Amino acid sequence: RAKKLMQTKEAGNAHFKSGKYQEAYDLYTEALTIDPENKIACTKLHYNRALTAAKLGRLNESISECTEALNIDENYQKAILKRASCYMELQEYEEAVRDYERVCRINKSRDNRRLLMEAKEALKRSKKKDYYKILGVEKTASIDDIKKAYRKRALVHHPDRHSSASDTEKKEQEKKFKEIGEAYTILSDPKKRARYDRGGDMDEFENGFEYARYQESPFEAFFNKSDGGFKFQFSGGRENFPF
């Protein structure tokens, strides 16, 4: 059985090297049935199937095969790294970070630490709010474009316009109104915008953005101008905004 297993595995490797990934996958699958008690061989075969599945674009299957390998050998670094890379491709960054942290506990090599850092950065970027998208403007938008977009969206989502809506809808509109205010506060300030565009940490700007704050600023400051600019007020659910 050992000889047949090795021959089948090597045949799979040959197909893999020549780019015949499905044929390789099928041979690795066949090899797994030859001697299922050979844990070392099965670990490598599951890993080989993971590599092949990834080449075929079947990333979730590749993840499953890596997990099968790790169920046999929990410290199999190649399987951890491959699974993490699949998670990265699928943009499942939290899972990727967990796997890279796991492999770093086994081997704190420079490459492993670099991969962990990259995964953490990707996770951080994925959670970063897209203020340009929130306002519906391009990244090259001028300050006038940003002001126009803010005015338009703030009027649509102002909570007073949804006073008769359901509680769920009210909360959703308040959330959108708050995000619009956050976006305007950052993008209308050249220094904050530049820092945001560089990918800087915006936590200090985002923390403390309470809904009550937006009832006065920037909304009030933007609309209730006395210099012939915009005026805005709600009265009995009706708006009056001569621009």
UniProtKB/TrEMBL annotation:
Domain (J): residue spans on this chain: 130-200
Species annotation: Bracon brevicornis
Segments annotated as TPR repeats: 5-38, 77-110
InterPro entries to which the protein is assigned, alphabetical: DnaJ_domain, J_dom_sf, TPR-like_helical_dom_sf, TPR_rpt
Key words, A-Z: Repeat, TPR repeat
Pfam family membership, one: DnaJ
SMART domains: DnaJ, TPR
Keyword Repeat: yes
CDD domains in the cross-refs: DnaJ
Domain of life assignment: Eukaryota
Protein name in UniProt: J domain-containing protein
KW Repeat (keyword) present: yes
